[in-house]
Amino acid sequence: MVVMSPAMEAYFKELDDKIEEMYKVAREARKKGGIDPVPEPEVNVAPDIAGRVEELVGPRGIAAYIRELSKTLDRDRVAFKVAEKIVADHRDKDPQKAADLAIRCALAIKTEGVVSAPLEGIGDIIIKKDGSGSYLSLYFQGPIRAAGGTVQAYVVLIADHIRNMLGIGKWIPTRDEIERYIEEIKLYDKVVNLQYTSKVEELDWVVSHLTVEVTGEQTNPEEVSAHRNMPRIETNAVRGGACLVVNDGVLAKAPKLNKLIDSLGIKELSEGWDWLKHIPKEKHDDKQVDTGADKKFGDELFQGAKKEEKKDDKKKIEPKDKFIAEVIAGRPIIAHPSAHGGFRIRYGHSRDMGMAGYGFHPATMYVTDNFMAIGTQMRVERPGKSTVVMPVDSIEGPVVLLKNGDVVRIERSKGIEKILPNVAKVLFLGDVLIGYGEFAENNHKIMPSPWVEEWWVLEVKRAMVAKGLDTTGLAAAIKAEPGVLQSWLDDPFYTKPGPAAAIELSRVLGIPLHPRFVYFWNALTPVQLGALRTWLATGNVGQVDETGIVHLTVARDPAMKQLLERACIPHVVTGESFDFLDESLALIEVLALRKQDAAIDTAAASAVDAINAVSGIKVRDKAPYFMGLRMGRPEKAKERKMNPPVHVLFPLGHDSGAQPAVMVAP
Questions:
Q1: 586-613 CB burial, b ≥16 within 10 A, e <16
Q2: Which pLDDT score, from 0 to 100, does residue 301 have?
Q3: What angle do CA 302, 520, 527 make, to 5 degrees?
Q4: Contact between residue 505 and residue 499 where contact means Cβ atoms under 8 Å apart
Q5: Average pLDDT in the 269-294 region?
Q6: What's phi and psi for 138, nearest 5 deg?
Q7: Which parts of 89-199 are beta strand (E)?
Q8: Helix, strand or coil, per DSSP, at residue 651
Q9: Paired residues of 130 in beta bridges
Q10: What is the DSSP annotation of 216-264?
Q11: Residue 654 burial (CB count, 10 A)
């Protein structure tokens, strides 16, 4: 039973009522007579996934069984159970029909009955015979691409399970056939551009271990040149569907498939697909792992500590460069793999992001010359392959260097047209908002979270409970209005404390400083941090303007200027000095500039550790990881036209079988 609020319940009821009104009009229109093939609307409303599956592929009556299983099982187990039932019901009458119906029904359940892949992505499912016995053959077609790599691999897995149930023998490829697949996939990659760049050894391993034949009809005019006229392969031309399933399906989605096999607990699959865990990977020598620092951002000073200076032995998550390995001319690379200044990974979801969209600050979309327009497909470093751009203004925006030397944090897009002509360089592109589910769905390791406002709020609330303070008591302790304090907690994305209040909150509650006044300290080495602190301490640390606000001004220094830009510390250039304006108090307190005997430990594991050792104010790492991103295929947003164009849609009725083909219609 689904529990929902009265408002949500009323909303769904309104949807149902409006749909019924539309159908009532359609039914009345059909009764006018003689114009339409049938007197009733052909497309019925499916109340749920089970109903859609039955309408899409059948068999009749299967919806009730799907609903019953769905009460206790997840969708993957439901799909396998339904396939098993269909095989049991039809195996004695027609094993080939049983296999066909079971695979299509399971695929429809997996895709929730909302894509055409179960009907159009699979052409035929045939039990073939050769000299050594029988085997199951799956004919994939181009539309299987719409199902996605995970579902493509899923079809092969469930087909093997059905093969076992029906007692059909294994497909055993010859060496020539294996090499044909390798040649064909590499040719298809040149023509169409596959998503996963596979190695010959990987393809050889996967094809040689498959137990059902993955084949298909010709989808491209290009033909293989070496491995031609194979007895069991009908065409010399490229079979796009088969190439997609083997390369972007079984091979690319092997980690997901292994996870699914383990969760199903089916002994035959666990044993028969154990080879999938041992796909040969490219061997690497013992070179130092690239930290992902982008060489375009400066000389060795900005590439972190030298080897002998590094004390942190924690295993780093390596950069992934696959998303730019296949970039073609004209597709801008917005950020290189894990490069400093790229996109800061932030967890969360906004309403306009949809199922797999990522959120970007509107100002980021402007400073990237509008390449990142709403809905643009982007290829991403992690956790998946691609996404679409959606605007979210509650996350952190970009930090830019202006032509006059000022470093500015852009927090709103309003009025940005005045700033853009003066931007010399983007120092930080801003946040990318990614739902946790994207990492779970793609079987990707969860990246460490940056220090963000929503985390800060939780720290405040926990400290308030520990110290027995309510909002009024805490407001009195930091000399703030209770209503203002409450707004910082209730609306942390748009209402933030000033530097003095943020520092007082940290001192009173013993929590890390508000993220607004934390910079990319770990972009510097402890040695660089020590040099920066020494230089800042030479400034007017105690200067207060006429309004009582602390102003830190320091004489200009080109080397220190580069460090300020690296750490994205906002400041303005005034004559021969740098003025840190609203950042002044935070810098003075965090770096303990008023303590004459304080010194940065240059042997510390990181800059953040060095700060926490010398400062009375704790800080956290603002950006443990950055992410790379490039433009994908914006032209795919154009209308799709069939070649040759379709002039007539011919109604076949409901008795044409799983495939609506004129040749087989009664």
A1: bbbbbbbbeeeeeebeeebebbbbbbbe
A2: 30
A3: 50
A4: no
A5: 63
A6: -110, 125
A7: 122-130, 133-140
A8: coil
A9: 133
A10: E---SS-B-SSS---TT---SB--HHHHIIIIIIIITTHHHHHHHHHHH
A11: 10
Given the structure tokens 């596979």, which residue do they identify? Answer: 198
Residue type, 163: R
Structure tokens at 470: 């309510």
pLDDT tens digits along 107-131: 888 887 766 666 778 888 999 988 7
Grouping H, G, I as helix, E, B as strand and the rest as coil, residue 556 is coil
Q: How many CB atoms lie within 10 A of CB 648?
A: 4
- Cα torsion through 431, 411, 360, 299, rounded to 10: -50
> In the structure encoding, which two tokens stand for residue 298, read together?
């400066």
Residue identified by tokens 């592929």 is 57
Which of 248-257, 282-291, 640-649 has the highest mean predicted lDDT (pLDDT)? 248-257
Please state, in angstroms and rounded to a whole number, the distance separating the CA atoms of residues 93 and 59: 15
* Cβ proximity of 79 and 158 under 8 Å: yes
Distance between terminal CA atoms of the chain? 42
The set of residues, in sequence order, having a beta carbon less than 8 Å from that of 15 and lying 6+ positions away, is none
DSSP states along 362-380: HHHHHHTTT-S-TT-EEEE
DSSP label at 665? Answer: -
pTM: 0.67
User: Which tokens in the block code for residue 336?
Assistant: 């290189």
Chain length of the chain: 666
Local structure of 540: helix, strand or coil? coil
Rg (CA), the chain: 31
Query: Model confidence over 373-424: pLDDT tens digits?
Result: 888 888 899 887 788 899 999 999 999 999 999 999 999 888 898 999 999 9
Query: Do the beta carbons of residue 529 and residue 599 sit within 8 Å?
Result: no
d(CA 561, CA 556): 7
How many other C-beta atoms are found inside a 10 Å radius of the C-beta of residue 235?
16
Q: Work out the burial of residue 12: count CB atoms within 10 Å of its CB; fewer than 13 is exposed, 13-18 middle, 19 or more buried.
A: exposed
Angle (nearest 5°) at CA 401 between 395 and 407: 75
Distances in whole angstroms, Cα of residue 383 to Cα of each of 128, 157, 282: 40, 24, 21
The position carrying tokens 């298809």 is: 188
Q: Which residues pair with 665 in a beta bridge?
A: none
> What DSSP assignment string belongs to 403-459?
TTS-EEE---STTGGGTGGGEEEEEE-EEEEE-HHHHHHTT-PPPPPP--HHHHHHH
Residue 573: phi and psi, rounded to 5, are: -95, 120
Residue 628 exposure: Cα atoms within 13 Å on the Cβ side: 21
The C-alpha atoms of residue 249 and residue 243 are separated, in whole angstroms, by 9
Who's near 547: CB < 8 A, 6+ residues apart?
A: none
Token pair for 332: 């801008």
Cα dihedral angle (419, 523, 529, 368), rounded to 10 degrees?
A: -10
At 282 the pLDDT is 57
What's the half-sphere exposure (Cβ side, CA atoms, 13 Å) at 525?
Answer: 17
Nearest CA to 520 out of 453, 400, 590, 428 is that of 428
Name the one residue in this structure whose structure tokens are 């400290």.
463
Cβ(191)–Cβ(235) below 8 Å: no
DSSP 323-344: HHHT--TT--EEE-TT-TTSEE
- With beta carbons less than 8 A apart as the criterion, state whether 428 and 398 touch: yes
Determine the Cα–Cα distance for residues 145 and 342; give it in Å rounded to an integer. Answer: 31
| Gap between the Cα atoms of 114 and 152, Å rounded | 15
> In this structure, which amino acid lies at residue 117?
A
Catalogue the E-assigned strands of 533-574.
Answer: 553-555, 572-574
Cite the DSSP H helix spans in 297-452: 322-325, 362-367, 436-441
Cβ atoms of 346 and 622 closer than 8 Å: no
